[in-house]
Amino acid sequence: MVNNINAQFDEKQDVNANTQWLTNFVEVYQQLATDNLHLLEGIYHQDVNFIDPMHEINGFTDLANYFNGLYQNVTSCQFTVTHIIEKETEAAIYWLMVYQHKQLNRGDKITVSGSSHLKSVDDKVIYHRDYVDLGEMLYQRLPFVGRLITWIKNRAAS
Question: Which of 29, 37, 98, 105 could form a disulfide with 141 if both were Cys (CB 3.0 to 4.6 A apart)?
């Protein structure tokens, strides 16, 4: 029964943006790779404020450096936007990220769901905050720490 409900819910997901700034953002993120990080300049404002569970970055130059570092450390990384809620210059997007890192999960692919709160100025993103379970994305994938976190979760659920 739950799978049927989830399947029906997934079919109704809206992944079409109504505004050009958000359409551009989604298109760039869904094609982002190590060889095209220059595309970020077309979607982010020079004064961007970017926040994720581990960093807060101000300014496009620092953000571009951050992405360069991130993408050098992964074997592959792909985003699929699954749902969009938007209103004029603000949006929430929900996504799946599938990535591979040679030092995590024995180099196998890892799938993580997350969301982003976005705000735009002059048709570029000036505020970007990611919400993602860092345990699911990183900590549980580390050899010793992952087993410890799994044990703690199981104990808490008992």
Answer: 105
pLDDT digits (tens, 9 = 90+) for 28-46: 999 988 889 999 999 999 9
CA count, 13 A, side-chain hemisphere, 136: 10
In the chain, % of residues over pLDDT 90: 50
- What is the 3-class SS of 90-148, one letter each residue? EEEEEEEEEEECCCCHHHCCEEEEEEEEEEEECCEEEEEEEEECHHHHCHHHCHHHHHH
Q: Return all residues near 125 (Cβ < 8 A) that are at least 6 apart.
A: 21, 25, 43, 44, 45, 48, 118, 119
Two structure tokens written together for 108: 């196998």
Q: How many distinct helices (H) and strands (E) make up the chain? A: 5, 6
Question: Strands 110-121 and 124-132, how do they pair?
Answer: antiparallel
